[in-house]
């Protein structure tokens, strides 16, 4: 058995080399193509080395590529070891064996790791293929980031680490020129703006709404100019191409790694198919060319994790190129070439045409009538929240290490790279989107946790240095409270005399309130001039105490006090045990814990309010819900009913469009929105205090809220706690925060793009095509990265909701907002 197995493998390799020899007419001199000990030419990378094809023919740019997700069904590590390392090994073997071959590589999270494992000999050999433009880096981010759930600062950061690696490693030949967002599920205007500001020359993607695609294919506008920022103008305009067939895989018939037959070109053998393959290629090229404005078309020759045996594709593409181009002597006008997206773009550029323009974005994306990819705007809300928190920590970490001018002795760059690289992976379009397998999502959270810990060490050393303290053992001195989301912090629960250092990463003075979980209300707080501050003790809610994550915590109160922190500076406060207990908040309304009774028809009970200098929030006794908001400065009051509600998830097996289920990617509600009435009355408890007042609402044993108004604030907070969502009825529930107001917003609302500029949204409408909405809820949902608002310009009224993580949002009726 052993010997026959071995001889088969020998035969296979022998055949492979014979083929290469025949096509290129030069004899392969070596078994090992990684022999670089020959003349070393000047780099010839860049547009100059592109094959621009034949001027009077249809030029088919065949782009060998692989799409390597930084985690999805497997962890990022799993994919590397199971597949990606072999892709990079075998592809580079092929590139060395034949200098006409090209390949693009995209995801630096994988390439960086592979590069680090190479010998100097191999690195030198790879660098030659980069210098010759055979191996070209496209996009060059740590991952191919999602565009809906990502914050602009994280998009920039994740490309920065990729670009820096490429520049340091390959010099100018490593610099990417093209955005390559082939798999993200919808496309953001801010992403295109950032790409243009990177200096990219173009952007290609595959996923575009099927109705939009239908219109663009008819009008030959899959390729167009995107004006991606109303404020930056030309600086943010970018050539953009949506790929033919809404796909980044090979055209049907040429996917040699997914079941399509190889080119069988020996007529003496059974299953000879070369003539059919050739005829199909020529006809497919002519068909595709009808929908494009130049004589160039692009075919993406690869897909998810393809090329782990690069021979499978390259051998067949070699045969196709040879057969297709041989027909030119018979008058064929089709020319096939190895190419890259940048060479394809260069060919278009040489044609010097003008294109139509677009100013909005490509959200939401639907690939059929009931399949709107709007679920992932919200999926795995906790992971999205953790990712945003980690981004904040990374920004502070970078600032503090720069301000403190840490040197290598502190390993700060090394430590910060953990979080930079983890965040790079988290931006991936199956990571922050919440669309990975559960164990992969846990792995993402673990990566963030490790990165945050490393960065906190950097922050401790930085703060110590800035405070002129010994930096020998800052880890002992400084502690972080990482579980504040469940009102738990071991350090503040077990100490009653400690200092609190608050850092302000903004370039302006910030005044806000700090909350610390504590066990006693016998504490006082002083500022750095030893002035005693106003404080307030807010009891930890019974809903918080029920959380699994709270168990083991001893905190009874949240100690609230105001802080003022200078720009890019810090302020120190001292917490001390005092002799006398401070007043704690009492619930104002009912002694039964504030449960306000109100049977229908029994008449209204007194309204309850939260009020400060700027705002008055009124709650309806009967429903337990917020009912109106008053802007006291303008003496302006609007009706505003806010509550948690939920949609039932559509069940289905996804077999066809009408059987589309709701899930992590797709949001498809089944019927109208439901309130929580089947779980009993909403319990309302109001606490009024000198610094903060709270309305606590319990909708069910798995859904509660706190509406919070601080002294001196011209906004209020809503903190929701939802889950675990019960599924014992086998019906999914998609929870929303709903605002129903009297604002005359008509059918218009506004959402942000990646935390930057706002886009105008009009219900059941798309600016560039005649939109037929087959999903009245999901088809109106858009990504809300940092804010959503409705307004009545005639009355100068606007309601803005700022969220702390990415969500989906919509305005489905005049005056309504939901997230
Ligand atoms: Zn992907």
TrEMBL record:
<keyword id="KW-0862">Zinc</keyword>
<dbReference type="InterPro" id="IPR011013">
    <property type="entry name" value="Gal_mutarotase_sf_dom"/>
</dbReference>
<dbReference type="InterPro" id="IPR048534">
    <property type="entry name" value="Man2a1-like_dom"/>
</dbReference>
<feature type="domain" description="Glycoside hydrolase family 38 central">
    <location>
        <begin position="371"/>
        <end position="448"/>
    </location>
</feature>
<feature type="region of interest" description="Disordered">
    <location>
        <begin position="585"/>
        <end position="605"/>
    </location>
</feature>
<keyword id="KW-0378">Hydrolase</keyword>
<dbReference type="GO" id="GO:0030246">
    <property type="term" value="F:carbohydrate binding"/>
</dbReference>
<dbReference type="InterPro" id="IPR000602">
    <property type="entry name" value="Glyco_hydro_38_N"/>
</dbReference>
<keyword id="KW-1015">Disulfide bond</keyword>
<feature type="signal peptide">
    <location>
        <begin position="1"/>
        <end position="25"/>
    </location>
</feature>
<dbReference type="InterPro" id="IPR011682">
    <property type="entry name" value="Glyco_hydro_38_C"/>
</dbReference>
<dbReference type="GO" id="GO:0004559">
    <property type="term" value="F:alpha-mannosidase activity"/>
</dbReference>
<dbReference type="InterPro" id="IPR050843">
    <property type="entry name" value="Glycosyl_Hydrlase_38"/>
</dbReference>
<dbReference type="Pfam" id="PF01074">
    <property type="entry name" value="Glyco_hydro_38N"/>
</dbReference>
<dbReference type="GO" id="GO:0005764">
    <property type="term" value="C:lysosome"/>
</dbReference>
<dbReference type="InterPro" id="IPR027291">
    <property type="entry name" value="Glyco_hydro_38_N_sf"/>
</dbReference>
<keyword id="KW-0326">Glycosidase</keyword>
<dbReference type="InterPro" id="IPR015341">
    <property type="entry name" value="Glyco_hydro_38_cen"/>
</dbReference>
<dbReference type="InterPro" id="IPR037094">
    <property type="entry name" value="Glyco_hydro_38_cen_sf"/>
</dbReference>
<keyword id="KW-0479">Metal-binding</keyword>
<dbReference type="Pfam" id="PF09261">
    <property type="entry name" value="Alpha-mann_mid"/>
</dbReference>
<comment type="similarity">
    <text>Belongs to the glycosyl hydrolase 38 family.</text>
</comment>
<keyword id="KW-0732">Signal</keyword>
<dbReference type="GO" id="GO:0006013">
    <property type="term" value="P:mannose metabolic process"/>
</dbReference>
<feature type="compositionally biased region" description="Basic and acidic residues">
    <location>
        <begin position="585"/>
        <end position="598"/>
    </location>
</feature>
<dbReference type="InterPro" id="IPR011330">
    <property type="entry name" value="Glyco_hydro/deAcase_b/a-brl"/>
</dbReference>
<dbReference type="InterPro" id="IPR028995">
    <property type="entry name" value="Glyco_hydro_57/38_cen_sf"/>
</dbReference>
<keyword id="KW-0325">Glycoprotein</keyword>
<protein>
    <recommendedName>
        <fullName>Alpha-mannosidase</fullName>
        <ecNumber>3.2.1.-</ecNumber>
    </recommendedName>
</protein>
<dbReference type="GO" id="GO:0046872">
    <property type="term" value="F:metal ion binding"/>
</dbReference>
<dbReference type="Pfam" id="PF21260">
    <property type="entry name" value="Laman-like_dom"/>
</dbReference>
<dbReference type="InterPro" id="IPR013780">
    <property type="entry name" value="Glyco_hydro_b"/>
</dbReference>
<dbReference type="Pfam" id="PF07748">
    <property type="entry name" value="Glyco_hydro_38C"/>
</dbReference>
